[in-house]
Amino acid sequence: MTDKFNTPQCIECRLVLIDTDSTRILTTAGAAGALLPRESILAYTRVAESLTEAVDRKYGLRTIQLALLSEAEESGYCAVHEIIGVRQALPRLLSFATLDEFDCSELDNEERAIVLKIIRGEASELGRFAQLGWLDKLLAKAGIRQDRSASPIIRQLNQGIDFCLLSLIDSAGRIVWFKAVGEPNTREYALTQELTRRFPSYLPKILATVPEWNGWVMEDVKGVPLNESDSMNQCEQALTALAVMQKGMANDVASLSALGAKDWTCGRISSQLEPFFQEAHYAMQAQTSMKSRPLGSNELFQLKREIESAFRQFMDAGVPETLLHGDIGHGNVLATATGPVFLDWAETYFGHPFLSAEHLLADLARSNPLFAEKRSGLRSFYADHWEAYVQPGELEKVTLLAPAMAAFAYAVIAWDANRGQPDPTQAWPLLRSMLRRTKRELEQASEAIA
């Protein structure tokens, strides 16, 4: 169960809000008996964050989400929360009831059994955080002290099976973050530790680790997401920091691989060209939108040949393949007073370094017209960090080809991620868009190189 819904409307959730000491459940008792509170949230939002904020706002209760149960046929989703603090007196219409006092119309038999297992600490199938009192265990394991006389101030952003992301304020008034990862992102634990050890200036400081939970506690980073900045200097600092980390890992790709980083080298991408273009052919044939013309079979064949040639030039130029941040946009680079900080290394790859730089520049260009206008200069600024590895003429060629190669790599990575999904065709609109972009970028690069 992911923490995001995939429908475009509001969704109503039933809330099982459990009092830790009594294990009784909050009810809005009415004529029909014990009723569960309901809350509507927007789709495409973080469920744990939206629900905990709504419960705090409406009832004055601070909670953490323990589990999100699968959608019932008629009654929608059911979120199970533990009450960890009371900010104000409960409204008079609210009270607490035992699990047995709720009718089957509120909790069906399967849901009732799961909630009981959560209360007893026996719901291992829902992960290590689907149990009462796990937050106290975290505080003890990580050595975090909190003022027990006050309601804890916790902001939970995400929750899933063996996964959690939250911030809290310790007894010293310091904000810290806790993150734990489960499948398929368990590799993030080891990769984050290693990258923090090697590049402490560019990742949040780790204050404590909880190895048995694949979790770690980080200090809070005071900064502004780079895609919300309008500072060219901050953008250049981020590109420099990216190059520093990449050059630092250039001779140790084996370590990245051993820690679980994904192989997206030029060689790996090139090896996927045949199956990728077979699916691209079907994707183009299936296009119904008239906004852009689909590429025909001959155009796809020619594009494949041009991409093969471009990858050979990429690989032969001498730029070493190294560390890639696979999700470098979306606010995952913070501009701080002391320099850039890179967050969220769940998608850590190794491959051609220019791919990450291009993906960052593309994200910034979408966010700010200034960065879009200055993208060519920023691209050259980043490329200059690699001049010691290649001849000047070759570096210029790599720089010109980088936008096309990054667009194509993005398409291949998205295609590969969707191959195992129930409906791989959901990636087809993205494939079509990125292939058209790749074609345009290659044409521009060819004109410039000629």
Protein topology:
Elements: E1 10-19, E2 25-27, E3 38-42, H1 47-59, E4 61-72, E5 76-86, E6 95-97, H2 109-120, H3 134-142, E7 154-160, E8 163-169, E9 175-180, H4 187-198, E10 206-210, E11 215-219, E12 224-225, H5 232-249, H6 253-258, E13 262-264, H7 266-271, H8 273-285, H9 297-316, E14 322-325, E15 333-336, E16 339-342, E17 348-351, H10 353-367, H11 369-373, H12 375-383, H13 392-418, H14 428-449
Parallel strand pairs: 1-5, 13-17
Antiparallel strand pairs: 1-3, 2-6, 4-5, 7-8, 8-9, 9-11, 10-11, 12-15, 14-17, 15-16
Helix pairs in contact: 8-9, 9-13, 10-12, 10-13, 13-14
What does this structure look like?
The longest helix is centred in the C-terminal third of the chain and has 27 residues, at 392-418. The termini are far apart. A hairpin with a 4-residue loop joins strand 10 and strand 11. The model is unreliable at 1-7 (pLDDT under 50). The strands form five sheets. A five-stranded antiparallel sheet has the order 7-8-9-11-10, with helices on both faces. Strands 3-1-5-4 form a four-stranded mixed sheet, sandwiched between helices. Strands 12-15-16 form a three-stranded antiparallel sheet, covered by helices on one side. The chain is built from 14 helices and 17 strands. It is 42% helix and 21% strand. With 450 residues, the chain is an alpha+beta fold. Helix 9 crosses helix 13 (392-418) and helix 10 runs antiparallel to helix 12 (375-383). The protein has helices at residues 47-59, 109-120, 134-142, 187-198, 232-249, 253-258, 266-271, 273-285, 297-316, 353-367, 369-373, 375-383, 392-418, 428-449, and strands at 10-19, 25-27, 38-42, 61-72, 76-86, 95-97, 154-160, 163-169, 175-180, 206-210, 215-219, 224-225, 262-264, 322-325, 333-336, 339-342, 348-351. The radius of gyration is 25 Å and the shape is globular. The protein has two domains: 10-219, Nucleoside Triphosphate Pyrophosphohydrolase, CATH 3.90.79.10; 224-449, Aminoglycoside 3'-phosphotransferase, Chain: A, domain 2 (Alpha-Beta Complex).
